[in-house]
Amino acid sequence: MQNKAILIPGVSNVDAIALKRAVWFYFFLIIFEGALRKWVVPGLATPLLVVRDPIALWLIYQLYNKGLLPSSIYLKGMAWLGVIGILTAMIFGHHNLIVAIFGARIYLIHFTLIFAIGKVFDRDDVLELGRILLWISIPMALLIGVQFYSPQSAFVNIGVGGDESGGGFSGAMGYFRPPGTFSFTNGVHLFFGLVGCFVFYFLLAGKKENKIMLIGASIGLLAAIPFSISRSLTFTLAAVAVFVMFTALRKPENLLKMIFTIIGLVALVAVLSQMSVFATAIEAFLARFSNAADSEGGLEGTLGDRYFGGMIASLLRSTRQPFFGYGIGMGTNVGSMLLTGGLTYLIDEGEWGRILGEMGAIMGLAMIYLRIGLSFQLLNLSYKKMVTGDILPWVILGYTLTILPQGQWSQPTSLGFTVLSAGLVFASLRNRVLPREIPIDTNIKESQL
Question: Which residue in 137, 353, 121, 393 sits closest to 247, CA to CA?
Fold first, then answer.
């Protein structure tokens, strides 16, 4: 027993296992929540929208009860803004308590879970999750391939709640963007973007990993790019690749591995492109890029719209909106359904525009500042770890920064992957320790959170 690893410092291993299982449950629900809402129990599609909330609440309560919930200016600031947002929505905004609570839960529960995951998981857990993710990516790639070639009326393409009009979204050349197991098509690019982090990491880490897993996940990732018809996935993987290249520039041996990795991936692309099943998908994917470039003003316009999401326009519009905004939760799909009975964007489709419209200029900017501030904090911590030779948090950060500052948190899948990835960055900074070891640098200091 003296050599048994401490799963969570300050917590018995029995309790630690229960806490870790809760994070795993949250992870699997992110991936399969849509499948439950579409195929398994479509009649419960609406309540399943918040199926992860009780797990998050339980986990946060357990850590708080044990005095282990980290103290952070970002955590406290977001919690206060969430509470104040409920009050201002009831006094000055839409006056609907359910809508206000639904909107505030994003900041009171799920944002807090980022820090909870960082406390419960450690580097070993992150690597294990990465391996599971790669195994899942293989059948996921097969599924979106089937969805790509199947009509929207097919069972694999049934929408949320058993919607027979299909869950796909307009793509190119008459083909639809497939949703995979997710409730909406954005889940595919969010899922495979995270898969890309671990594919790159395991290929560069130089450790012995299951070859079938790595080859299968690499093929699945490359196949997912054209099958998804998703520009967002391309940009996300490009961001991860930039962060990986940065590690290669700092460490010559990584540069050589990166070159061989690129050669291997290019060879795979060449082989896949010669197969008719992929050739059609590649053609549709390129057509999607071409059509978008024509409508958005080329690559510059596409990139600006993809990442910045009209943030400047949102800031300008906020000066013409109520001081306290229209009310927290009003910009979510659930909020629009409860307030109008229909699904529409009552405030703004972009994330920053939604926040500023719901909360008003002052509180909205404060929320945006906290998200950007946390992003820079993760950047600082991951960089320090990377220069010591551990690139895991840095590689995951490349993905996280595409959604943490301005990802659409009103959409459950996007919110889930943001919380998970940011929590994994924190967790990957912490190593598992033995009872006889002095845990120097194994925990993130609360002042750094």
Answer: 393
